[in-house]
Amino acid sequence: MKQRKIPMRSCVVTKDKYPKQELVRVVRDNQGLVSVDLTGKLNGHGAYLKKDLEVLNIAKKTNILERYLETEIPESVYKELEEIISK
Question: What is the pTM of this model?
Answer without folding.
Answer: 0.91
